[in-house]
Amino acid sequence: MKKRVFWSMLAVSLLTGLFLVLIVLGLLPSFARECTLDNLQREAAVILPLVNTKGDEQPALAQVLMAARVTLIGPDGRVLFDNQADPATMDNHLDRPEVREAMEIGRGSAVRRSYTQSEDMQYFALSAGGGRVLRLASPVYLTRIRVVQTLPWLLGALLISLLVASLLSRRISLQLSQSISRIDPDAPEEVVTFEELTPLLSKLSKQSAQVAQQLNDMQEKQQQMDALIDGMTEGFMVLDCRRRVVSINRSAAAMLHVNPQMTLGRTLPEISRKPEIINLLDELEEKGNVQITLPWGKRSYSLNASRVAGTKGVVILLHDITETLEGDAMRKRFTANVSHELRTPLTAICGYSEMLSSGMVNKEDEQSFLDRISSESKRLLALIEDILRLSKLDEGNPGGEYKRINLFTIAREVVKNFAPAAEKMQVDVTLRGDRADVMGDETLLGELVGNLLDNAIKYNRHGGKVEISILEGKNGVDLTVHDTGIGIEQAQQDKIFERFYRTDKSRSKETGGTGLGLSIVKHSAEFHNATLRVDSEPGVGTTITASFPLVEKKAKKK
User: Fold this and answer.
1) Superfamily (CATH) of domain 402-549
2) Disulfide: which of 165, 241, 248, 418 matches 13 by Cβ 3.0-4.6 Å?
3) Least trusted range by pLDDT, from 73-77, 509-513, 535-539
4) Helix, strand, coil % (nearest 5) of the chain?
C-alpha cells in the first residue's frame, strides 16, 4: 500500500507539473510578444524626440544604434527613412495596417510578414507629427528564441518540483502506512491517526464488533454441535473427498477401539482393512447410500454411509446392534425351545390318553398311566406359568407393589414351603441371618428365593445340605444360597441363566424342571437392581449370591 500511495502521489505531481508547463508554454509566446511590443514602445519613446518637423531627422536617426528596425514614413506613405533598407526601393507603406492605425488614432501595432525582409515581424507605429509615422519592427523569431531560452528553466523547475513531490509523497505515504499499521482491529477508534481516516475507523469498529459477535455465535453453535455429536450414543464420522476422517465422536472411537486424535487425517481403510469396509466405499461410489453390518471383535455394528449432497464428503453413522442381534437369536431359540418343551409333555399326554382310550392298557397299569398323565399335565402347567411370568418380566410389568420388604421373612416362608421337597431328597436346609430390608416386589422376591432353593434341592445329592444366608453389609444386602450338589462346570456358568438351558438334561427331566427357573431369577434380580455371582465346582457344590442395593434406615420413633 505504501508503494501504491507513493507512486500515486508522484504521478499526480508529475501530471500537475506537466499541465503547468504546457500552460506556461501556451501563454509564453503571447507574453513574449507583449514584452517585445513593450520594448518597441519604449524604444519608440526614446527615438521620437529625434524626429523634427524641419526634415533633417534622417541624420539624427542614422546615428541611433537600435537592434530594432526603424522606419520613418511620410504622410503620403512614402518611406522617408529605414535603418536596414534603402527607402528608394521600398514600396508605399500607406496600406500597412499599423501605419493606418497610427495615422488614425496615434499608434498601432501588427504582427505580419515583411515584404522587404521576407520574414514575420512584429510592428509598432507611433504618430510623429505632421502626418508622419515612426515605426519600429522586431523579428518574430526573437520571440521564439525567448520561449526556447525559457524552456530549460521550466524543465528544471519541473524536476525540482518532482523531487520535492517524491520526498513529500514518501513522507506522507510512510506516515499513512504507519498510522494504518498501528490500527488495532479490536479497538480501531482508539488509535490517533489522520482525521480523514476517522470514518474508516468508525466503520472498522462497527464491523469488528459485528464480526466478534458473529464469531461468538458461531463458537457457541459449534460447541453446542460438538457437545451434541459427542453426546450421541450412536457413532458419528465425517470423511472428506479423499475418504479421510475429519470428524469422529467418542462413541464411534469407542466402538472401533481407536484414539480419536490418532484417527483424524487417516483414511477408513487405514483404520480397518476389513472386507466390509472396502466394499462399503466401493458401493458408496455407485449408490451414494450404503448400509452394512460390521462385526468388530465381540460386537456387531450397523454402518449407514451417505454422501453429502453438493460435496464429495461422506457421513457415517454407527449403531451397536449386538444386543438386537442377540435378542433376535435368543427369541428364535426361545421359540424353538418353547415349541420343543411344550411338545414333549403334550406328546406324552396324548400318547398315554390314546392308549387308555383304545383299551390297550391293562387294568393294573391304568393307574400308572393316569399318574404319568397327571405328572406331565402339571409339568406343562408349570411350564406355561413360567413362560407367562417371563413374558411379564420382559414387558417390565411383573405386577405387585414395589415397597420396603424384609428379605429374611420371605426366605423363611420359602424354606417352609420347600420342606417336603427337601425331606424327600433328604437334604438338610438351614437359614442364617437377621432382618434385612430391600426395596422390591414381594412375589418376585419369593420366586427368586424359591427358584434358587428349588435348584439347590433338585440338583443336590441325597443327604446333602443347603445353606441360605442373608447378611446386611455397608454396601447392601447379600442373599447367598449354597448347596453340596453336582456343581457346574466353569464353561457353563455364564449360560445357566439362559432360558431352557440345562447343565444335565437327563436329570432335569427326571426332576421335572422347566429350564426357566434361573432365567426368572435373572430377570427378578435385574428388576431389583441386584447383581448375581456364581461360584461352583463340579462334584463339590454351587454358591449363588444375589446382592441388593442398601436401603436407607428408617428413623427411630422417639
Assistant:
1) Histidine kinase-like ATPase, C-terminal domain (3.30.565.10)
2) 165
3) 509-513
4) 55, 20, 25
pLDDT tens per residue across span 311-360: 778 888 888 887 777 767 766 666 666 665 666 677 777 877 877 787 77
Residue 403 and residue 439 in contact, taking contact as beta carbons nearer than 8 Å: yes
Q: Which cell is 345 given?
A: 409333555
Residues in the chain: 558
Measured torsion, CA atoms of residues 350, 356, 362, 366, in degrees rounded to the nearest 10 = 80
Beta-sheet pairing, 299-307 with 314-320: antiparallel
Q: What is the DSSP string of 315-358?
A: EEEEEE-HHHHHHHHHHHHHHHHHHHHHHHHHHHHHHHHHHHHT
CA dihedral 493, 497, 501, 502 (to 10 degrees): 60
Task: Give per-residue pLDDT as tens, 478-518.
Answer: 999 999 988 888 767 676 766 555 555 544 444 445 556 67
Q: Check if the beta carbon of residue 447 is closer than 8 Å to that of residue 389.
A: yes
Q: Tell me how far apart the alpha carbons of residues 232 and 73 are, in angstroms, rounded to a whole number.
A: 120
Which long-range contacts link 503-509 to residues 24+ away (Cβ below 8 Å)?
A: 503/459, 504/459, 507/459
- Determine the Cα–Cα distance for residues 416 and 127; give it in Å rounded to an integer: 166
Global pTM reads 0.42
**Per residue in 469-480, is it b (16+ CB within 10 Å) or e — as a string?**
bbebeeebbbbb
Count the alpha carbons within 13 Å of 236 in the hemisphere toward its beta carbon.
13
Q: Is 476 helix (H, G, I), strand (E, B) or coil?
A: strand
Q: Which CATH number fits domain 2-146: 3.30.9.10, 3.90.370.10, 3.40.190.170, 3.30.450.20?
A: 3.30.450.20
Cell of 364: 393294573
Place of cell 409339568: 379
From the CB of residue 105, how many other CB atoms can be counted at a distance below 10 Å?
Answer: 9
List, edge to edge, every strand of the sheet that includes 69-73.
Answer: 79-82, 69-73, 132-139, 119-129, 107-114
* 2-146 and 402-549 agree in CATH topology: no
* Residue indicated by cell numbers 490517533: 192
Task: Annotate 180-225 with DSSP letters as a single string.
Answer: HHT--TTSGGGS---GGGHHHHHHHHHHHHHHHHHHHHHHHHHHHH
**Pick among 3.30.390.50, 3.40.20.10, 1.10.287.130, 3.40.1710.10: CATH of 326-395:** 1.10.287.130
Nine-digit cell string for 204 = 472498522
Residue 3: Cβ within 10 Å count: 9
- The Cβ-side half-sphere exposure at 415, using a 13 Å CA radius, reads 18
Task: Tell which residue, 13, 18, 29, has the closest CA to residue 150.
Answer: 29
Q: Mark 232-268 as b/e (b = at least 16 C-beta within 10 Å).
A: eebbbbbbeeebebebbbebbbebbebebeebeeeeb
Cα–Cα distance for residue pair 140/43, rounded to 1 Å? 17
Q: Do 412 and 436 meet the contact criterion of CB atoms below 8 Å apart?
A: no
Write down the domain spans for the chain.
2-146, 231-320, 326-395, 402-549
Q: Which CATH architecture has domain 231-320?
A: 2-Layer Sandwich (3.30)
